[in-house]
Specification:
Helix content is 39%, strand content 14%. The protein is built from 19 helices and 17 strands. Helix 4 runs antiparallel to helix 12 and helix 5 crosses helix 9. It is globular.
Amino acid sequence: LLHHLGEPEALLKELIMSPPRARIASAAQNLRDLGAIRDDGSVASLGRIAVFMPTTIQLTKLVVVAWALGIPADGIVIAAALSTQDVFKLAASANCRVPEDFPQHLAHNYVTRARYDAGQFSEPIMYRNLYMDYLSVNKANKGQYYQWLDESCVAVSRMSQFAALVVELAAKLGAAVPSAKDHPALRKLVGLKRTQQLSAREIDDLFTKDYDRLKCALVGAFQPSFVQGEINTQNKNKGKINSCGFDPKKTCLLQQIKPPEMADVDNLWNFCASLAPTKDVKLNDTGKIAFIECGDDCEVRVPQSDVVHQMPLVAQLLHQFMMKNCKFKVLTDQGIWHEPAKIGSPNFLGGMKWHVNGMRTMGSPYWRSNMGYMCEMRDELKCHWGVCSSLLGREGPDQVRITGLTILPPPGSMSGTVMILAFLSGPFKVTFVGKESDPGFKGVMIVPTDAQGYEARPMMLTFAPGWWSADDMRRLNDFRMAMNELLTTPEQDAAEAVQEMYAELMSVVHRHRAAKKGPQNTFFPVADERIGKSTGDIAAEARLVPPPCGCLEIFEVG
């Protein structure tokens, strides 16, 4: 990135072992989209800050965006977590005294992750919440600390590395941005000692309770790595589940049950109840299909979520055991010898499959993650949108692994759509759907323009429950311009201006949610919806006007 040597792409092409030109161009475009380099190849302020930070460009941007939004501690902790190996221990049969202990071992690990997620469906937020709990532990008392590590399924060496990196990142941000050095949160993090314990009030003062603000920072750092969760509304087992006599939205169907002795009501109930809350179990007339009515996950301190109405824990865990051979204590205790086996094939209504934004490629969250298998029980929703820290590694010929996944607020809340528009940058065509005048736009379609050899899959987003107006667009552009100025001149005054514009932008969302008068926006697009003449929609393509500074263009419509 030495500007006087020429453009980075040209410099890299001169290397003896030069990467493929397409990869060089893609990497350079990614740095431009992130705002780390300018169009002329010179290093932008974000790139200079990144020199100080022992993290990737994306995670450096997360730290900067979180600071700009007034939540620097949250961004620093998440950046540290995503820079280190997963602090949670891997649930494995090798770590169990006897093979029959593995199902409960895995269930404890899985439920613990779900508790720290706190209903947000976000791996980054899960790690932040874990760190908050870590700060409350008396680490000077080794017995208490190691008990917490064991109960939380956390590896001691990884937790130590994680905690040390938090302090280092806070110090590095203060060095890179001197005007931020005196921020109370940065001073607190920099001054943390290895065994220091904080009070509940100190922890609450350090971290935000505003999950929308935190998810907005994650979008700002990781866009355009968006993924779409398409909800299956045509489940072939829907009729069986609906007619089984249990609550269909709490019922898991299990077929191809193995070993054969598990196709028994008592054995299956005891096994499921040992994993997570279970209400009832029954078999069909042939005895080959089981229906498991899940219990209330609040019994194990896993809260209900407004983000995703997910299948209950016992159904999620049955999906885990579909992937892993195990032995069953309920059978061994009865003297029934059996080989390790996968429990069978579980099925739940509203399952989701993941599409990588704009591509034909499918995405696959890590199967041990709490988002490895997801469902949505609300009938009006057809898809969810998320953002991830990386799309690396293959899960097959047409799938990539999704890591650091965060599910955005659902369609119908408006805030998820606004988060995406607040930070969208790169080669996109943006088209608003509906009328700019009363009542306003009902949605927006975003299509990548750099797709080669295939038709790009669009992002169709809704403004429900409200309608997007010209005044709303002005507030959106004001926020984007404030972010441009912050990324061009990263100073505390600029960060405070971003926070002011963010409050103005979110006031738009709150106003639309609270509106009681006028027509209600009921636009909930299907996963592959497009604007077309057949739909009768009015389309208004936005002009993306280059800003005076920064990389976030200004939206102009009309």
